Automatic annotation (TrEMBL):
One GO cellular component term: glycine cleavage complex
Protein name: Probable glycine dehydrogenase (decarboxylating) subunit 2
EC class (word): oxidoreductase
UniProt gene name: gcvPB
Top-level taxonomic group: Bacteria
Keywords from the UniProt entry: Oxidoreductase, Pyridoxal phosphate
Domain Glycine dehydrogenase C-terminal: 340-442
CDD domains: GDC-P (cd00613)
Amino acid sequence: MLIFEKSKSGRHCSLFPPCDVEVVDVPAKDQRKAELHLPELSETEISRHYTELAKKCRGVNDGFYPLGSCTMKYNPKINDDMAALPGFAEVHPLQPEHTVQGCLSVIQEIETLLCEVTGMDRLTVQPAAGAHGEFTGIMLIKAYHESRGDFKRNKIIIPDAAHGTNPATATMADYKVVTIPSNEHGCVDMEKFKAVLGDDVAGLMLTNPNTVGIFDENILEITKLIHDCGGLNYYDGANLNAIMGVVRPGDMGFDVIHLNLHKTFSTPHGGGGPGSGVVGCKKLLADFMPGYLVDGDAVKKFVKAPKSIGDMKAFYGNFLVVVRALTYIKTLGKEGIPQASKNAVLNANYMMNKLKDLYTMAYDQICMHEFVMSLEDLKQKTGVSAMDVAKALLDNGMHPPTMYFPLIVHEALMIEPTETESKETLDDAVAVFRKLYEEAQTNPQALHNAPVTTPVGRLDEVKAAREPVLRYEWK
């Protein structure tokens, strides 16, 4: 029930202290002609309402949350403590530079550290999310080509296992998308890739490891071929959690990269944000960077790149997300960053090997941070779909993994355990998956009915997508 539906006329609570400044009446011409539609409840009712809502929510704090390709790992609370410091939380974006030297130091330090992690030369914290960072990166590539008078390059090459935002980003930048199919190992089909190369290629968009959790062994050849035909390489950093501190995209041949600080570097990203899709680049693109970069030693200052593509967001990005990410990096340190990646890879391979005797692995080989199962065989034999298994996981205290993605795998469940989960948690999750597999053989209807223990049961997701109710209608 919505809080508006619980409202009773005349109920109220005193939450605000008496006004301690002069009261200035709003001129009649600026006053509302009708009362605001606000719910009227007591403080007790408000408290219970939001407590009830909190109990219906699910997050990493509630249990295993293996959302593939989203890296839903635990966010250390020290990150929030640092972001809540008054010098960070109460800063104003229009303050003079000399009053925010500490904040400038944060931006400069995270640029230095992330450039070291990625093999880039410069980095901007302005983009607000992953897709926003993607668009920024492709606009840098576009600006580079156009600055050289090279307007014939109108194609961006993207593997079919890419995140859906990649082709959307390239299209928004007015490029034609050329999709390359995957081979039997889940990587780029090299012959199909070579066939589309030419002087009309602006660049490549690719993540490595890719969306099926496989590290492409041909990556150095792939990026070299793009450079040889005059294009540039863009790295989608969504899966950096598997390789940070171990392998650098810059050393793989990539020229520009976005990072999801709200994933890999453990800052909250549920509920729509805030995110941070910082973008790093090699020197050849540095003159086109957006936003405000930070330079200087003793005295730090904002600078604009000489050929900047312009601002991608107001001011300096989601700064408190940057503070959280820097805290995470400094907490882990030089030894902890690669260890986190190795643990993520270990956890994914452990769980995959504990399940592959029952479930069909889309690519039965060593994976990186995530793996993809295909439940196509299970559906054909029992009628139980990936959706059914995902819903049944909810009844067993587990958030479902990503469903039906990537599109190249039918009846896909993509599982990313992350490095913050213990062996005991993984063993419990494996036991649930195995139980559901057996239940699919003996009692498939139970999985069709799932979930039955959640606040609401199986929803009509097609109707919700096609006929969404986006606003409350007052009676």
